[in-house]
Sequence to fold (130 residues):
Amino acid sequence: MSDFFILATQLSMKLLSIATGLIISISLSGCITFPTDHSNQVKVLWDDPETISQCEHKGTVIGSQGHFYDYWLHADRDMVWGTLNEMRIKAAKLGADTIYLYRPLGFTGSVTMMANAYQCGENKIESMPP
Fold:
């Protein structure tokens, strides 16, 4: 009877270890940023500096998605999409309706981008609370 109890205890401890490792891995895995109603109004530009010549500069925004420990869980396109959404959200908080992307930074494992935020349209977006 005692051998059975020892074996059952060892098996329970192994299962608990595996479950704990799985829970930690899942919780460390970041989510992709989704757009908001305000950020959906923000345009993304990158190839025509003339389009922002008459715009009011609102600030610089940075977006980043992915980590060294979970990048393999997300497709590159999802991390790029999440990064753009994060920057659009930040730009909307500044009251901007357009972001103009800097040249993308090289990435292996995560995506980080920078952009200038501008107010270009006549219909001003109200700055979102932080």
Remarks:
- Confidence is low (pLDDT under 50) at residues 25-29.
- The chain is about 35% helix and 20% strand.
- The longest helix spans residues 2-28.
- The CA atoms of residues 61 and 90 lie 6 Å apart.
